[in-house]
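4.2 Preliminary Data

To establish feasibility before requesting continued support, the project team ran the inverse folding procedure on a target of 310 residues. The structure was first converted into the token representation described in Section 3, and no sequence information of any kind was made available to the design step. The complete token record follows.
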């Protein structure tokens, strides 16, 4: 850094800036949501690991989604909960930047895992006779590994572009965690390159995958309509509808957050939308998959039955 630039040592996370009683209520509410996120995703992960009937490509990717959801929430929510009950709401600059990096990485992974899951459903429904050959374990492992590696590399690009900027204030982030758009407002230099890269990444990691998902499910819908058996149609719809719910919640909130025109209160809008994919989506994912998936419910019943005393 040049001599006339100042490196910020710590920043203040302003959070929700509500009345003390409201913040205490939010602390209790968000604590419950966070607990459900960990318990729900942990249960899904445990069931998939323990029940050999779920050792299939679909649940292999679902286990990765559960890991990402727990990691995603754990990166943002604990600091938010601590800030709701403490007056000192500062965070050191380096941990703040690391929080931004991990938040981007896990968000990218979730996008790619959802796309891979849609491809898995496409092959299972549209090419059932070739499913075992196309979605073999080598391919599944390669897709999962590529999703993780590429996501961290893309997040690293954002990190490098952030660290090249001089940060000299203000020392306040109007958010409950170090979200990238809020962090860029701390820079005292032109952030046009950062904004362009963020938009390009959104097109590549949000719009592109969403288009692939929509194409996959259009093909799936056509294939389902050709199924003669009513039970076959019902099973196919049940399997895919849960995935579509997750896709709609995640991609919808992320696209509105980073690609839609800003409202008159953009910072407050950012906080609310961030709650959707930082807290609500990770909590809802296991509920959607467990309540709408007969195989997961069956595996859960078998696990509980084994633990029941004779």
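Position-by-position output of the design step:
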């Amino acid at each position: 850094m040049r001599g006339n630039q100042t490196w910020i040592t710590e920043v203040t996370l302003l959070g929700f800036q509500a009345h003390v009683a409201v913040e205490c209520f939010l602390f209790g509410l968000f604590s419950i949501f966070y607990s459900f996120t960990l318990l729900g995703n942990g249960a899904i992960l445990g069931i998939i690991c323990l029940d050999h009937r779920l050792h299939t490509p679909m649940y292999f990717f679902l286990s990765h989604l559960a890991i990402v959801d727990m990691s995603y929430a754990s990166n943002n929510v604990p600091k938010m909960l601590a800030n709701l009950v403490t007056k000192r709401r500062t965070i050191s600059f380096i941990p703040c930047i690391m929080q931004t990096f991990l938040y981007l990485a896990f968000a990218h992974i979730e996008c790619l895992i959802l796309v891979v899951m849609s491809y898995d459903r496409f092959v299972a429904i549209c090419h059932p006779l070739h499913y075992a050959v196309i979605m073999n374990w080598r391919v599944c492992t390669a897709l999962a590994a590529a999703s993780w590696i590429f996501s961290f590399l893309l997040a690293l690009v954002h990190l490098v572009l952030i660290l090249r900027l001089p940060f000299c204030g203000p020392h306040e982030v109007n958010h409950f965690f170090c979200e990238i758009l809020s962090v860029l407002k701390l820079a005292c230099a032109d952030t046009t390159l950062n904004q362009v890269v963020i938009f390009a990444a959104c097109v590549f990691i949000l719009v592109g995958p969403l288009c692939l998902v929509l194409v996959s499910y259009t093909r799936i819908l056509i294939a389902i309509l050709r199924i003669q058996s009513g039970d076959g149609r019902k099973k196919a719809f049940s399997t895919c509808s849960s995935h579509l719910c997750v896709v709609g919640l995640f991609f919808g909130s992320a696209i509105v957050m980073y690609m839609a025109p800003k409202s008159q209160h953009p910072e407050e809008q950012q906080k609310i939308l961030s709650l959707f994919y930082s807290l609500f989506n990770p909590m809802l994912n296991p509920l959607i998959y467990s309540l709408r998936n007969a195989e997961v419910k069956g595996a859960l019943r078998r696990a509980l039955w084994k633990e029941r005393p004779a």
